[in-house]
Amino acid sequence: MTADAGRSPKRILILGANGQLGIELQRSFAGRDEITALGRDRCDLADLGQVRRVVAEAKPEIILNAAAYTAVDRAESEPELAQRVNGEAAGVLAEEARKLSALLIHYSTDYVFDGSKSGAWVEEDETGPLNVYGASKLAGERSIAEAGGRYLIFRTSWVFSAHGHNFLRTMLRLGAERDQLKIVSDQIGSPTSTFAIASATRQVIDRVTSDAAESADRSGVYHMTCAGQTSWCGFAEAIFQRARKEDGGKWASVTGIASAEYPTPARRPANSVLSNEKLQLKFGVVLPSWEDALERTLKGIA
Ligand SMILES: NC(=O)c1ccc[n+]([C@@H]2O[C@H](COP(=O)([O-])OP(=O)(O)OC[C@H]3O[C@@H](n4cnc5c(N)ncnc54)[C@H](OP(=O)(O)O)[C@@H]3O)[C@@H](O)[C@H]2O)c1
């Protein structure tokens, strides 16, 4: 008997269907739930009226919002758009979800913190985004909470996958083209695969949707990242180590540099590591180590 046996399929609306997480969520829920998955072409979060119409028409029991303005550096010069998509639209989704008594699952970011803590950040820690993207995601968290419905916000970090735009895919491209790469070594965080996020999301849903009253009690913010931590430089080294082992090829060697030597329009936190203790305590959900998640993702690419 599978874990899904006896469970009734849910009507799930996935937004941001063409992003790296959206693709994985579709894969993870396909076959067991009734999925409507929409990309920006069918539901543009910058168009708040369209967001309301789409949700009202789809009448989902669960909304998985993987859509976001994620261009961290570009957001510095497009703050209004980032705020509308990540801040206001998230609140509109939460209001529409409340009208339907649906559960809204939304993803947020480690960039809501300023990176100054020495240990792992917990959910109750004071936020203090350093950039426009982080501020817009924090605004989204707040507007969801204010809407007063059932919601779960999962803050994740350094997301990678076999698809889309992410650090892993950029490194695999650059590492094959160049002999040497200089990568920032003074920002630490937890690389997290879309597979790990989708699978943890599934496990949480299975625990909450059986009891609506209980899931209302559990509404809130949870950290959801792979276990362990590294720097961007350490992440790049791990990628090339595994790639060399796999194909014996000559991959770039990596030298660590300070963030100051690689200026970007948006400032980024020095310490992005999030504690997952609350997720584990409330839902019994544990994510794999980032190294295992990397191994698994690379096997999918090979
Ligand atoms: N990537 C990370 O490292 C990271 C870290 C922490 C948290 N997160 C959070 O994790 C979630 C998933 O991110 P991801 O990594 O999957 O990002 P992604 O690959 O960039 O996907 C985001 C998706 O949102 C869509 N989108 C952008 N603007 C939109 C709009 N106005 N209306 C509708 N859709 C729009 C994009 O559409 P197009 O394909 O048309 O551009 C894209 O498909 C987001 O909430 C993000 O903030 C990501």
From TrEMBL:
Pathway of action: Carbohydrate biosynthesis; dTDP-L-rhamnose biosynthesis
Q: Which residues form a coiled coil?
A: none
Q: Name one GO biological process term.
A: dTDP-rhamnose biosynthetic process
Function, as annotated = Catalyzes the reduction of dTDP-6-deoxy-L-lyxo-4-hexulose to yield dTDP-L-rhamnose.
Q: Which InterPro entries match?
A: dTDP_dehydrorham_reduct (IPR005913), NAD(P)-bd_dom_sf (IPR036291), RmlD-like-bd (IPR029903)
Domain RmlD-like substrate binding residues, every copy: 11-299
The entry's family comment says: Belongs to the dTDP-4-dehydrorhamnose reductase family.
* Pfam families the UniProt entry points to: RmlD_sub_bind
Which reaction(s) does the protein catalyse, per the Swiss-Prot or TrEMBL entry? dTDP-beta-L-rhamnose + NADP(+) = dTDP-4-dehydro-beta-L-rhamnose + NADPH + H(+)
Gene Ontology cellular-component terms for this entry are: cytosol
Q: Which GO molecular-function terms appear in the entry? A: dTDP-4-dehydrorhamnose reductase activity
Q: Which PANTHER family match?
A: DTDP-4-DEHYDRORHAMNOSE REDUCTASE, METHIONINE ADENOSYLTRANSFERASE 2 SUBUNIT BETA
Q: What are the protein's UniProt keywords?
A: NADP, Oxidoreductase
Q: What is its EC number?
A: 1.1.1.133
Name of the molecule in the record: dTDP-4-dehydrorhamnose reductase
Give, as one word, the top-level EC class. Answer: oxidoreductase
